[in-house]
Amino acid sequence: MLDNQKFSLYNYHTNFDKDILMSYKGPFDKHILAILGNYIEVILGRNPKAGKKIFKIFIELAQNISFYSAENDKLGTLAGIGTVVIGEFEGHYTFVSGNLVRNEDVVPIMEKCEIINSLDREGLRKYKRDMRGTPQGEHGSAHIGLIQVALTAEAPLDIEVTPVDNQVSFFTVSVKIEK
Amino acid sequence: MKNLEIPGSRDVYFIPAVSFDAESGVCSISGESYLEETVKFYMPLYEWLREFISTAKKPIEFNFKLTYFNTSSSRCILDILNILKDYEDNGGVVTVNWHYDEEDTDMEEEVEDYMIESELKINLVPM
Predict the structure, then answer these.
(1) How many domains does chain B have?
(2) Residue numbers of the domain that contains B66
(3) What residues of A are in contact with residue B71 (Cβ under 8 Å)?
(4) Is the backbone of residue A95 left (phi > 0), alpha (psi -120 to 50) or beta?
(5) How do residues B97-111 score in pLDDT, each as one tens digit?
(6) Confidence bin at A142 (pLDDT 50/70/90)
(7) Is A30 close to B103, i.e. CB distance below 8 A?
(8) Pick the CATH number of A19-178 from 3.30.565, 2.30.230, 1.10.287, 3.30.420
């Protein structure tokens, strides 16, 4: 993108208005996670309850990107590539994360998210307990991570899937966290 | 048998402090748990508990003082509770205390969920 002259850093910069607390696109390797996690704790320190929730959500979703993104940092860490943005508004924060997923994974992920969004808090807690009783995968379980995100945010998962090509789609999950 | 002591640290990952006392049977996990290889970290804790249970056969007092853990760690915590529950079912004396910040309602829910899953009584103790 940078080499065809059409990329405007000015547009990119100014499109991120004052509501954006933080944005990052790139590989989600352990050092990046540590730095961003630390930064989130610092900037949200003035609102400890919401800040802790955002930190917990960040760790789960950032680990999902790190382990499951269909796009990897081929030159260096092999960590998954994705994007996170945190916005601050009058009564809430918005946490958005996105990454490429393989098309065959889209339906299972969407089904999982639909189940999560159909449940009330007690139902979600039961769902988490049931999933936690099943054997652990290689990196834990992305499914529990998403359930935990909905529980922590105390809000549904706002999901968007943008088809990219016949291999991959861009998967976005967005949650609101009340102040 | 030896005590199990792991100093906690908070760097790229968050390592909880572990203190398992073979003499008194008082065990604690404190701090924050977010690890590179979660199961690998918790495995020696399971092994220590199993050895204590099979050889010492003394009462266990287990104190959780965790302020944060990710979902991977949450499975390992459940494994510890299940080991303790098995001990209790087989005649062992087990006390589990969960120390927490009273304002942390998410943590209170976590503990309730652990009680339902493990069927073990957990005392909520405000810090």
Answers:
(1) 1
(2) 4-94
(3) 60, 140-141, 144-145, 148
(4) beta
(5) 999 999 999 999 999
(6) low
(7) no
(8) 3.30.565
Q: Determine, yes or no, domain membership for B127.
A: no
Ranges of each domain in chain A: 19-178
User: Which residue is closest to B67 within chain A, CA to CA?
Assistant: A52
The pair of three-digit structure tokens given for residue A29, joined into one six-digit string: 């390797």
Output phi, psi for B43, to 5 deg: -55, -50
B100 contact partners, CB below 8 Å, separation of at least 6: B67, B107, B108, B111, B124, B125, B126, B127
At A81, list the tokens: 């590539």
Give CA–CA dist A52/B106, Å, rounded: 10
Cα pseudo-dihedral A143, A154, A80, A141, rounded to 10: -20
Determine, yes or no, domain membership for B104: no
Domain membership flag for residue B111: no
Where do we find the tokens 């760790």?
A: A59
Q: Does A139 touch chain B if contact means CB atoms closer than 8 Å?
A: yes
Q: Is A140 on the interface with B (CB under 8 A)?
A: yes
Task: Give the pLDDT confidence of B19-70 residue by residue, as tens digits.
Answer: 999 999 999 999 999 999 999 999 999 999 999 999 988 999 999 999 999 9
What is the ipTM metric for this complex? 0.92
* Cβ distance of A63 and B70 shorter than 8 Å: yes
Q: HSE (CB half, 13 Å, CA atoms) of A160?
A: 8
- Is B61 inside any structural domain? yes
CATH number at residue B36: 3.30.750
A36: its two tokens: 């961003």
Residue type, A168: V
Q: How far is A161 from chain B, CA to nearest CA, in Å?
A: 25
Torsion angle of alpha carbons A39, A41, A43, A46, nearest 10°?
Answer: -170
Q: A53 and B106 in contact by Cβ < 8 A?
A: yes
Query: Per the CB < 8 Å rule, is A133 touching B117?
Result: yes
